Structure formats: C-alpha cells, structure tokens
C-alpha cells in the first residue's frame, strides 16, 4: 500500500493537466505502415487551460467509475457517449494492465478544455490519469515508462505527460522535450508565440480524421505554420474570421490550434488583449473566450 509520507496509504490523487497546441505543425504524406496517419514535424506547447482528473481508490472488486463535471462537455454529454471509450478510462485500463493492478478506481474529470477543439482535451485527461495512478498505486515509474504506456493510446498523449515544449516527429508520437532556451523555442518566442493568450472556442467540433482528409485534398495554405489550418478553416470558416479579427486587433500571432476549430491568439499587452476580446465579441466569430498563457505543466496533488 502506498504511503503519503506519514505512513498512511494514499487514497486520492488529483492532477491538473494543461491543454496542448501546436506552434508549428508541418504535415507530410500519409504512411501505410502507420495506418494511414501522416508524417508530422511539430512543436507542441502546453497551454494553461487545465482539466482536473481525480483518481480515488475503491474497494477491491468494485470496478471503475467515471464522473464528468463542467459546463462545456461537447459530445461527452450525450447519453450515447460510451464511458469505456473515454480516454481517461482507456488510460486507467492501460496502466492497470501494465502494472498488474485491478482498475478499482473512481475517476472524476472536471473539464475546462474545449472538447473536439484541437487542444487534446482527451489526451490531457489520459495523461492526468496516468500521472495520478503513478502516485495512487505508488509505482513511481520514470516519465519514459509512463510515455511508453501513453504512446499506445494516442500520438499526442506522451507529450501531455510533461507539458512545456516538445518536438514531435513520426506521426507525432516521437517526442523530444525542448527547453525554453532551445533554439526552436527561443526563435518562436521571439516571433511572439509565448506568454499571454486568448483561446477562441466553439460549440462546434471538428473530427481530426476529416481535417486530415481535407488537407489531403487542398493542402496547406501559403506560409501557414499549421499545415492543417486551411483545411480546418474550409470546414469551419468562423475560425478563419477569428484569426483575421485577432491579427487586425493587434494579436502578435493568431492561428488554428492543431486540427481545430479553436483559435489561439497571443496577446502580449493589455491593450492587445482588450482589443482582440472586443473584436471577437463584436463580430461574434467565436462562441467562448478563455484567457490563459503558455507554456504550462501538469500539477499532481495528493488529496488523501
Ligand atoms: C492534429 C493533432 C496535432 O497534434 O492533434 P489535435 O489537433 O487533434 O489535438 C494530432 O496529429 C492528432 O493526433 P491524434 O490525437 O493521435 O489523432 P487521433 O484523433 O488519435 O487520430 C485520428 C485520425 O487522425 C488522422 N491522423 C492523426 C495523426 C496523424 N499524424 N495523421 C493522421 O492522419 C488519422 O486519420 C487518425 O486515424
Ligand atoms: N476525456 C475526454 N475529453 C475529451 N474528449 C474525449 C475524452 N474521451 C474521449 N473523448 C473523445 O475524443 C474526441 C476528441 O476530443 P479532444 O481530445 O477534446 O479533441 P482533439 O482531438 O480535437 O484535440 C471527442 O470527440 C470525444 O468524443
């Protein structure tokens, strides 16, 4: 039984896990050996919009349970949403198998990351679950071991375990953690891809496979750092309007987050933040605005 320093067992752990965006997302050809997934070269950056996953120990044999809280649950709220397919539950089962534990754990997810938004909300919840169980079950596995488990669940899940910045290659699952002093990050920071930001979020969701399929048809927009941007805008034009409004209002950078539809606008000053907020509200080109900053990292709390 794991201890929390005063000799008692740990019974509840919560993890605040940040969302993900891609400061660059270069997309190559689909590869048959990767099940048709495209070759990527991307700079991941964690954004300070957090989901909180709480994992509590249940009685032996009680099985798992899942509870979702939050005002914006997207398609997770529908009764048809299969709990067993939730990415946090998939992570629980993967960790249970890898560590020979029974999945007798209650999971509670407080969702704040927009769903189906291109911000890896599902991957963040899976990563939070992995980090929580590493403490709840007293595994204390190194990050590399946890990333091996995460990589079996999705391309951007290994990155979500560490946050900060990373270069992703392969189909996005090969991760090289980047320090903020690395040349890549220093160059992007110089171009304004760091610090204070606004997220333009939508009720609508985009399906990642559909965005990649559209990319295969129309390719990347000239000069776009995110090669999926033109495809996402063709499927969800309001995101393109939000980018134009943000840049006009003084955002240093504004772009689609990953496969979209959400838009990230870096706003380095109070004036820029106020101007972008007002331009988005007046043009009604976004449904919700979330103020945040980047980079960010997961935070683990031992509750009981
Ligand atoms: C686009 C990115 C950018 O980081 O993230 P999101 O914006 O969705 O968060 C990722 O590539 C999302 O990767 P991942 O999270 O694995 O996508 P999944 O939803 O699991 O993949 C669903 C489908 O997307 C397509 N896909 C995904 C990754 C990739 N490198 N090439 C692809 O073509 C494939 O059709 C795949 O079957
Ligand atoms: N815990 C979760 N949080 C969000 N989405 C989830 C979760 N578990 C499963 N999903 C499913 O994954 C899909 C993609 O969600 P998400 O990861 O938020 O978006 P994206 O892949 O665009 O970053 C959603 O449509 C949802 O049905």
UniProtKB/TrEMBL annotation:
EC number per UniProt: 2.7.1.148
Domain GHMP kinase N-terminal: 91-164
Catalytic site: 20, 156
Domain (GHMP kinase C-terminal): residue spans on this chain: 215-282
Keyword presence, Kinase: yes
Biological-process GO terms, alphabetical: isopentenyl diphosphate biosynthetic process, methylerythritol 4-phosphate pathway; terpenoid biosynthetic process
Pfam families listed in its UniProt record: GHMP_kinases_C, GHMP_kinases_N
Amino-acid positions noted as binding ATP in the UniProt annotation, renumbered to this chain: 114-124
UniProtKB keywords: ATP-binding, Isoprene biosynthesis, Kinase, Nucleotide-binding, Transferase
Protein's pathway: Isoprenoid biosynthesis; isopentenyl diphosphate biosynthesis via DXP pathway; isopentenyl diphosphate from 1-deoxy-D-xylulose 5-phosphate: step 3/6
MF-aspect GO terms: 4-(cytidine 5'-diphospho)-2-C-methyl-D-erythritol kinase activity; ATP binding
Reaction(s) this enzyme catalyzes, per UniProt: 4-CDP-2-C-methyl-D-erythritol + ATP = 4-CDP-2-C-methyl-D-erythritol 2-phosphate + ADP + H(+)
PANTHER family cross-referenced by the UniProt entry: 4-DIPHOSPHOCYTIDYL-2-C-METHYL-D-ERYTHRITOL KINASE, CHLOROPLASTIC
Similarity-based family: Belongs to the GHMP kinase family. IspE subfamily.
Function according to Swiss-Prot or TrEMBL: Catalyzes the phosphorylation of the position 2 hydroxy group of 4-diphosphocytidyl-2C-methyl-D-erythritol.
Protein name from the UniProt record: 4-diphosphocytidyl-2-C-methyl-D-erythritol kinase
Native organism: Bifidobacterium catenulatum DSM 16992 = JCM 1194 = LMG 11043
Record gene name: ispE
């Amino acid at each position: 039984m794991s201890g929390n320093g005063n000799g008692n067992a740990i019974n509840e752990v919560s993890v605040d896990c940040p969302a993900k965006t891609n400061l660059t997302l270069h997309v190559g050809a689909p590869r048959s050996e990767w099940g048709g997934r495209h070759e990527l070269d991307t700079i991941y950056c964690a954004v300070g919009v957090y989901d909180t996953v709480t994992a509590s120990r249940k009685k032996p044999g009680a099985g798992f349970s899942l509870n979702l809280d939050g005002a914006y649950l997207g398609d997770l709220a529908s009764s048809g949403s299969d709990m067993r397919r939730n990415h946090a539950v998939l992570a629980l089962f993967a960790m249970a198998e890898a560590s020979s534990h029974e999945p007798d754990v209650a999971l509670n997810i407080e969702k704040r990351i927009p769903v189906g938004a291109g911000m890896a909300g599902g991957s963040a919840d899976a990563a939070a679950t992995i980090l929580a169980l590493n403490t709840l079950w007293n595994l204390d596995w190194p990050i590399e071991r946890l990333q091996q488990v995460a990589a079996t669940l999705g391309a951007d899940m290994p990155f979500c375990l560490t946050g900060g910045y990373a270069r992703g290659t392969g189909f996005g699952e090969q991760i090289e953690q980047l320090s903020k002093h690395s040349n890549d990050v220093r160059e992007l920071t110089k171009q304004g891809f760091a610090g204070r930001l606004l997220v333009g979020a939508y009720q609508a969701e985009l399906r990642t496979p559909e965005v990649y399929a559209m990319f295969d048809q129309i390719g990347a927009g000239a000069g776009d750092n995110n090669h999926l941007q033109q495809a996402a805008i063709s499927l969800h034009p309001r995101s393109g309007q939000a980018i134009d409004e943000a840049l006009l209002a003084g955002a240093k950078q504004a772009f689609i987050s990953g496969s979209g539809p959400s838009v990230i606008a870096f706003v380095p000053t109070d004036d820029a933040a106020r101007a972008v907020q007002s331009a988005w509200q007046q043009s009604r080109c976004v449904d919700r605005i979330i103020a945040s900053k980047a980079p960010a990292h997961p935070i683990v709390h031992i509750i009981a």
